[in-house]
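Customer escalation, tier 2.

The customer says the design service returned an amino acid string that "doesn't look like it belongs to this structure." They asked us to rerun it and document both sides in this ticket. The original structure tokens are below, unchanged.
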């Protein structure tokens, strides 16, 4: 550790732990499963670990505050033991975990016991409690084509999850195409996997033939280049307990959708990018084939909406008046979905550079484009719109449940 450097990706942020403020360092990929909790005073030292300075030089930089080289060295060693520093230890551990994950036929439930109950009996009670929440409207006429569900944690999203997933109780489908938001950076835009998915209710089988055909049309290498991102992704996983609970042996197609920010920065439409155009064309082709075989597909989008507040990097603090403005902007976003208008959806995000950090916009754009190419004219019903606001931590997430019917 001649010149220690924090590795990437990492999440480094201040959080409130009871009456104390702490500095948390987390690995979003799960290479280090538990976060490291530090006192806020070490934050300047953490920020100096950029690979340009030795421990002695960092100590000299902060010597006016009484920092000694031994302290910096101990901090660096702690981070290295936790696989938070770039270098041989982290590279070896990451390689081991990736190899182990990619060799396994089943993707383990990453959130079980933390975000939801680990036993099937306890989870059944938990989900039934959420499903007591029902919409007071009759379902839209027709058959459910797409379910738009939150991917926020169950604690904050329970009402919306319940009101949303109640609508698949009476519906029967042959295949569930589940699309999640990929929260981790990748140079690839779409991520497939052939793994089955574990839940407390048993294993959900992935439709191998669908995934193989899709990757054949789109390109095998880029389809699975960053398959490892499925390992810890919550946006897709949080849909599966409901699906496994409500349906008997459902078959799934798991897809993660990455960022469109390079498109927003360029000012070009997604269809101007070969990677996007080739994927949506391939997905349309495979879907068309299955519909032609008489299969009934349900698309499930695990998406949230706005992420605002100082917790997400905004300058001004949240107020009730500001959240009303966010509600109005979210309504415009939902209107574009309800109107089948992918151009309006993209334009809505582009006009302010995604200032609200809409988490799930690429997934919804992809689905609107897909349904347009398939000639599927849907009717929409908004089940629930919610704002999870914490004024103390200055953090707000908005989300909705919606059904698209044909």
């Amino acid at each position: 550790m001649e010149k220690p450097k924090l590795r990437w990706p990492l999440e480094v942020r201040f959080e409130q732990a009871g009456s104390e403020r702490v500095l948390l360092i987390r690995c979003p990929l799960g290479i280090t499963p538990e976060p490291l909790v530090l006192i806020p005073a070490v934050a300047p030292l953490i920020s100096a670990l950029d690979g340009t300075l030795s421990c002695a030089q960092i100590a000299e930089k902060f010597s006016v505050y009484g920092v000694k080289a031994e302290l910096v060295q101990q901090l660096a060693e702690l981070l290295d033991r936790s696989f938070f520093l770039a270098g041989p230890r982290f590279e070896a551990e990451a390689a081991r975990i990736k190899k182990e994950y990619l060799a396994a036929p089943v993707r383990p439930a990453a959130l079980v016991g933390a975000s939801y109950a680990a036993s099937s009996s306890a989870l059944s009670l938990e989900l039934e409690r959420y499903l007591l929440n029902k919409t007071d409207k009759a379902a839209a006429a027709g058959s459910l084509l797409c379910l738009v569900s939150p991917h926020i944690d169950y604690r904050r999203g329970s009402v919306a999850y319940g009101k949303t997933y109640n609508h698949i109780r009476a519906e029967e489908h042959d295949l569930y195409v589940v699309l999640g938001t990929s929260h981790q950076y990748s140079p690839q835009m779409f991520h497939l996997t052939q793994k089955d998915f574990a839940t407390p209710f048993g294993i959900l089988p992935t439709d191998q033939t669908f995934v193989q055909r899709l990757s054949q049309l789109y390109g095998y290498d880029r389809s699975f280049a960053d398959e490892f991102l499925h390992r810890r992704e919550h946006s897709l996983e949080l849909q599966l307990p409901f699906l496994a609970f409500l349906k008997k042996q459902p078959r799934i197609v798991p897809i993660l959708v990455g960022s469109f920010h390079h498109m927003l920065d360029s000012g070009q439409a997604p269809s101007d990018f070969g990677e996007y155009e080739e994927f949506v064309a391939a997905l349309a082709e495979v879907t068309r084939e299955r519909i032609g075989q008489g299969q009934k597909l349900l698309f499930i989008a695990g998406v949230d909406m706005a992420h605002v507040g100082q917790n997400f990097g905004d300058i001004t603090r949240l107020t009730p008046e500001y959240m009303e403005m966010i509600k109005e902007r979210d309504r415009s976003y939902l209107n574009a979905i309800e109107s089948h208008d992918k151009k309006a959806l993209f334009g809505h995000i582009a006009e302010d550079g995604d200032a609200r950090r809409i988490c799930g916009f690429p997934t919804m754009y992809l689905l609107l484009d897909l349904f347009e190419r398939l000639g599927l004219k849907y009717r929409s019903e908004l089940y629930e719109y919610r704002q999870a606001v914490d004024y103390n931590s200055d953090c707000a997430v908005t989300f909705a449940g919606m059904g698209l019917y044909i």
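Tier 2 assessment: The sequence is consistent with the input. The chain has a mean pLDDT of 95. The first strand starts at residue 11 and ends at 17. Sent an explanation to the customer and offered a walkthrough call.
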